[in-house]
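Appendix C reproduces, verbatim, an entry submitted by the partner laboratory led by Prof. M.T., so that reviewers can inspect both the input and the predicted structure.
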Amino acid sequence: MENNNNKKVDQLKQFTTKDEGQPLTTNHGLKLTNDEHSLTIGERGPTIMEDFHFREKMTHFDHERIPERVVHARGSGAHGVFESYGDASDITMAHFLGEKGRQTPVFVRFSTVAGSRGSAETVRDVRGFATKFYTEEGNYDLVGNNIPIFFIQDAIKFPDLIHAVKPEPHNEIPQAQSAHDTFWDFVVNNEETAHMTMWHMSDRAIPKSYRQMEGFGVNTFRFVNANGEAHFVKFHWKPVQGMESLVWDEAQKIAGKDPDFHRRDLFDQIEAGNYPEYELAVQLIPQEEEFKFDFDILDPTKIWPEELIPLRKLGKMTLNRNVDNFFAETEQIAFHVGHVVPGIDFSNDPLLQGRLFSYTDTQLIRLGGPNFHELPINRPVCPFHNNQRDGYGRMTINKGRVAYGRNGLQNDTPHVVDQKDGGYAHYQEKIEGRKVRARSVSFEDFYSQARQFWLSQTPVEQEHIIDAFCFELGKVETIEIRKAAVDMFARVDRAMAEQIAQRIGVSAPDASIEQVADLPPSDAVSILKNQVPILKAKKVGIIVDTNSNVDDLIQSLENEGVIVELISDKQGMINNREINHTLDTADPVLYDGLFVAASFTDVVQNRKMQRFADEIFNHYKALGYIAFEGMDKLYANAPGVVTAPDEFINALKMGRHFDRTDATG
């Protein structure tokens, strides 16, 4: 046995390499002069097929995991319908946007990015928001995130970003977290990440539910109308219920109490008829105004401030049906930014250009071959005909002997059609330039919008950002990385960086570092400035005993669409109402508010009830009580803490009460 072990060790040694100190090469040993930029025509032109290094790097990355997705592995989906608000033919030929009231079936998949399929859903992470429109002209995929920008400018660096944020390879720790050395090492060595990192440290990265988070197309696309007139376009999904996020302590506890928290909420609310709704809106820049702004509109690390470029609403999506089989639908859905319809085209956004290659390449390995479009969840609702044949998973049975173009045996069919007959034609953009691996200098401002984001937040949101930085960097073991992060973000806001430095045990930012100049704040990027007071679909726990009389409160809450669950010291019936949970099987982090209408004789049960109330209070949620001795002393005059049922309903409607100065969050 010992001899066999030695043989195995020797076998492994043959394939062990140490990369430190070595020049960067391709897999075939070719030394590289540049690994920062894709090969483009001109500094702002499209990526070209000749870029063998990009294709090798991205192909290898796309095939790193089987069978789950490399990114966005943990997801949940639902069916629905999109209804157009009006005729948008002045800006796009897309048929599904061409008539008021026109309805198009959709499927949406929400997801986290970094974690595996088995990871928790409330981790600090970007959320995927991908929508497949089954239009009469073919499938259109709007593949986006819940944050409007991204960490990197060029897709060639995407494998590096994901390698950095994934569990570290020497010990596969930590899962679904960015709070570790390799991620922050990547951040401080790639300044273009500054803006996105500010969003990542904000409450946007811990949404309360999929129903209450925004979605964005992230990249810059084009709309083209029937006259050939083009607009650059950014896509937005606006939740009708408004935005809401968790607080960090709550998010961590939910990850343990209910790691399926987001998918459970989505599934349960659809089953209950509380259908999530989102309005589709676009920002538009005429082709001739491409260089009008003080930021590059093709830079995926930049927003288009809504105050400069207002939104135009195009329609509303309603998610109204859960999947019948999670694997067959949610897991086998295959999105691709290159799945477009006439009237929707691409820009030279370097991140988008790489995505156009990567998605098909990914599906080939995940779904076993080129016929993933034939799976029921991916099949278009319109007919499709071409000369592609065979391969893994082929379902279509093509009749006849012809499988090639320019034929006489089949009257030269299937044949191409003109644009006027619905054929897709790319926008004819004039491109001139040398083949280069470089990025336009217009992409080099890494900090101005990061500071704009900071200045746009409320004081509460700014406090949460600082707390997030301190938590994340506090988990970083390498002190030099902590220090580098403090110095980097001093360019965004020196006072913020000084607070972080003090709490994570590093020196204050270097005096030579200059904070960037202010840009006008953009209220649209704040969650708390855009809250929608709402009651429908919120979940309330009411703690009761045999003496409780809460019928009127329950009726009032249910009349508003609130989900009510009764909690007591034991299950069974109280006053002809079924007890849903005990103090042991329920948890305060799973509720939006709590009303205490009990006082138990058992000391232990009262302590459990006190823990419930404390956690509700510390997470800034609505808290009501009657009959519970000691509450007045603990929570006297605290915002959102009430004793009257009608006051409780109002406190619940207003959301979190962040003006509780003694809550621990």
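The domain at 447-529 is CATH 1.20.1370.20 (Hemocyanin, N-terminal domain). Additional entries are available on request from the coordinating office.
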